[in-house]
Amino acid sequence: MTLLTPVARVAALVRESGDRAPVAEQRIALELERLARVYADERVLSIRVGTSRRLTASLARARLERAEIVLAEALLGSRHLEEVVVHEVAHIVCWWRHGRVRPHGAEWKALVRVAGQAPTVRMLPRDVRLPPRRRRRRRLRAAGALHAFLRSVL
To answer: In angstroms, rounded to a whole number, what is the distance separating the alpha carbons of residues 82 and 76?
Structure first.
């Protein structure tokens, strides 16, 4: 995973993510600066943003205790980048202000609305293709194996 700060680590993202990265880095930095003003909290500027190729089930992930956001690398060229950044920053700011609350509860929704977005929980943008999910096979225990065998035979 590549970790970035809004302005300081532009070169790292540019090297690792190709030609989409400089524009994405600028968009992320501008959005974090805007959110710092909207939420009146300078700590927003200290949120680290990184990318990962391993995110297959979601577009991004907020790590609350670390004040860190991990974005799917496929999201960098998307027109939905700012919307996802607002979503994840709202999780972190909500945790700073209210502690442990419901992930998409009333406090989080209020923060997203203040930022000028609709509080959506799921989005499936057509311009982002996440890598395929790998299925994990469970080991069947003896009773489970017998049950699976009987289901397949009967």
So the answer is: 10
pLDDT in tens, 11-36: 444 345 555 567 889 999 999 999 99
Q: Report CA dihedral (144, 149, 151, 153) to the nearest 10 degrees.
A: -170
Question: How buried is residue 3: exposed, middle or buried, by Cβ count under 10 Å (0-12/13-18/19+)?
Answer: middle
3-state secondary structure of 4: strand
Cα–Cα distance between 35 and 101 in angstroms, integer? 21
Q: Which amino acid is at 154?
A: L
User: 């609709």: which residue's tokens?
Assistant: 118
Q: Which tens digit of pLDDT belongs to each residue from 65-122?
A: 999 999 998 888 888 999 999 999 999 999 999 999 999 999 999 999 999 999 988 8
Q: Kindly tell me the burial class for residue 28, based on how many C-beta atoms sit within 10 Å of its own C-beta (0-12, 13-18, 19 or more).
A: buried
Domain residue spans in the chain?
A: 2-153
The C-alpha atoms of residue 51 and residue 32 are separated, in whole angstroms, by 16
